[in-house]
Amino acid sequence: MSALCPRGRLLGHLDGESILTSEPSELEAKIVAALERLAQALQRALWEASWRRGLSATQAQILVYLLHRGNERVNIKDLASRFGLGAATLSASASSLQRKGLVRRYRDAQDRRVVYVRLTRRGRRRAAQLALWTQAIEAEIAELDTRSKERLLATLLEVIARLQRAGLISVARMCTTCVYFRRNVHANPAAPHHCALMDKPLQLMELRVECPDHQPAPVPSGGNCSK
Ligand code: SF4
Fold first, then answer.
1. 195 Cβ below 6 A of ligand 1
2. Is 213 close to ligand 1, i.e. is its CB under 6 Å away?
3. Do 130 and 192 have their domain in common?
4. Residue 21: is its pLDDT beyond 90?
5. For ligand 1, what atom is nearest to the CA of residue 198?
6. Which among 214, 217, 221 is positioned nearest to 198, based on CA atoms?
7. Number of domains in the chain
8. What is the pLDDT of residues 29-60, one digit of tens each?
9. Are residues 124 and 164 in the same domain?
10. Which residues contact 136 (CB under 8 A, 6 or more apart)?
């Protein structure tokens, strides 16, 4: 049944063709339910960390994101895209952070329409404290064996890439959505992928979630059922 997206539950066959429902299988539904529980735990940890410091969750995420971007220049458009927000909403959060003395906004010298955001010294300190909000969750994940963690990372990156191709999530600067990413080109199961920019195999644990060299790969034709 090649014309159908192979996502539904197989109900049977008619005239030699598979009949699929458009409903997710029980396994898929369980995975989504598990992800929902994880999202809940993350939301709660983030909310508690932000609230204690008088910030909204989005403001806290912006500070931590800027901290992780280091000395890279980050403009309002990048931030809006990263958090799936409109430029006006993002701008309002940046204004609030600026009033609190945590970020500074400045215009590009060549193109005055482009506005960059960077952490102040105080903002960097606050971001470093906020960045610890994931600690309790990371500590639990640390108990898993290395192979399970590698597989989990690779699978999650694959799911995020699919959601991005389906337009369900904003662009992420990770390997699985990068034009330089070559999937499964090496026989070594511990390092099956390749980064064409660095021209080296990527071990599963080396897959990047935020890469400064990321270039978005074109969306494959045929929609999200093509793979
Ligand atoms: S450039 Fe960065 S994101 Fe792209 S494949 Fe290489 S390591 Fe991954």
1. yes
2. yes
3. no
4. no
5. 6
6. 214
7. 2
8. 999 999 999 999 999 999 999 999 999 999 99
9. no
10. 45
Query: Does the C-beta of 210 come closer than 6 Å to ligand 1?
Result: no
Same domain flag for 88 and 118: yes
Buried-state track 171-185, b at ≥16 Cβ within 10 A, e below 16: ebbbbbbbebbeeee
Query: Which residue segment(s) compose the domain that 198 sits in?
Result: 144-225
Any atom of ligand 1 within 6 Å of the Cβ of 175? yes
Kindly state if the Cβ of 172 falls inside 6 Å of ligand 1.
no
Measure 174 CA to ligand 1 centroid, in angstroms. 7
Confidence of residue 167 (pLDDT cuts 50, 70, 90): confident
Q: Which of 183, 198, 209, 210 to mutate to test the pocket of ligand 1 (most atoms within 8 A of CB)?
A: 198
C-alpha torsion sign, points 50, 55, 58, 64: negative
Please check whether residues 121 and 167 belong to one and the same domain: no
In terms of domains, do 39 and 72 share one? yes
Contact present, 116 and 73 (Cβ < 8 Å): yes
Higher pLDDT, 213 or 16: 213
Residue 200 domain-assigned (yes or no)? yes
Domain final residue pick, 100, 135, 170: 135
